[in-house]
């Protein structure tokens, strides 16, 4: 794209001189010259053609001089428009005034065309750099806006109404949250009713960060929900989803997670842990016991892996706390991790919480206090299931 130059000078000979000297650049489409003979005419042409790149202006002109024109150009606040001012060799006072008002460069009469060419080339390089920076900034702002919308959509697809199952509210209390470290996250949780007395629950962590992890998260969540609604055992569901993810997975993408089926009538939990952090059972007495972890592999890597499920039972008043490693791997200002020991201490101290929400918010509060305002290094996701009766 040609660099558009507006030459402003009351000496008509300059138009012929510039057109002749820069004829090769004009013929190649590198430069495009427009000519005006005073400041007022120049402003009119700038209104007609607002995308000039360089203004080459004499200082001493009738009707409106170059310094006044420069002031008017400054009012446009266009950092990509560069002004090169021209005046007599002895007129250094006006030249200094022009430079102080933001002129990019200056030339003296009689004009040294080779020196002027260097100034124009230098100004053109600056214009190109600024416009590229503006384009990149616009693209980044657009991407930032898209990511913010994606983050809102991601939060919207996660269950956010608690209790999630009104007809089971008298039997079980459930609460969950996901706080991404970036605009979008790779963690997710889900809750869905399988039949009149059972519901499925999921907590998972997709490898990686940002948009790729968020997309893989959406696929994984959809597959787990669709499979879980079939009513198959947790191990069967995880195995089936693993095979599907292996077929669709991008290189180095995998999911750690726990899928469980809770029976509200008995407190029984059929669960399968696919390489995820171990959940805890919190007793009303103040005990916090880690649930046994099977030697299962992550999902999305080994297509033929045979997953093994486990079973636990919650007694009335017991709570099951599930979390992603963003909890235990939260850092303080000294670079120390929150760790499982602090988590277990928090769970014991929070055992008497009146409901699932209070217990979960107590954990996140402990993590936030430990981090002391340090930015999250990973997504922070928790779920608490508390048996009422």
From TrEMBL:
Gene Ontology biological process terms in this record: phosphorelay signal transduction system
Organism name: Candidatus Bacteroides pullicola
Annotated InterPro entries: Bact_Sigma-Reg, CheY-like_superfamily, PPM-type-like_dom_sf, PPM-type_phosphatase-like_dom, Sig_transdc_resp-reg_receiver
Keyword Transport in record: no
Record flagged with keyword Ion transport: no
Record protein name field: SpoIIE family protein phosphatase
PROSITE patterns on file: RESPONSE_REGULATORY
Response regulatory domain location: 4-124
Gene3D superfamilies assigned: 3.40.50.2300, PPM-type phosphatase domain
Keyword line: Hydrolase, Phosphoprotein
Residues with PTM 4-aspartylphosphate: 58
Pfam families listed in its UniProt record: Response_reg, SpoIIE
N-terminal signal peptide: none
GO molecular function ontology, one term from the record: phosphatase activity
Lineage, broadest ranks: Bacteria, Pseudomonadati, Bacteroidota, Bacteroidia, Bacteroidales
